[in-house]
Amino acid sequence: xxxxxxxxxxxxxxxxxxxxxxxxxxxxxxxxxxxxxxxxxxxxxxxxxxxxxxxxxxxxxxxxxxxxxxxxxxxxxxxxxxxxxxxxxxxxxxxxxxxxxxxxxxxxxxxxxxxx
Length: 116
Known about the structure:
Distance between the termini: 40 Å
Number of helices: 0
Mean pLDDT: 95
Radius of gyration: 13 Å
Order of helices and strands: EEEEEEEEEEE
Largest sheet: 7 strands, mixed
Helix content: under 10%
């Protein structure tokens, strides 16, 4: 069992930056980690994913390419989402998910609000 805890959300002005953290209670070495977001009235969508350390590839939604960066620190069992040049449409609850061939774990989410 792996517990995930997100942090780093908050209120930021358009053009600002935030760094979200997804801290795991155990090793995430063999897990793919994804960041998802859900805006009010919308379905949850994948924002970025980083594969397990053995291959460690990244992929991003078109809407965040060039602005968001996902990274992982396996020594700290933590995955980060650096968000730059934030826009009002980035406002959502951001959640992380750890997945492997047989298991899937979700965090509780952190609110990001981009507003002037």
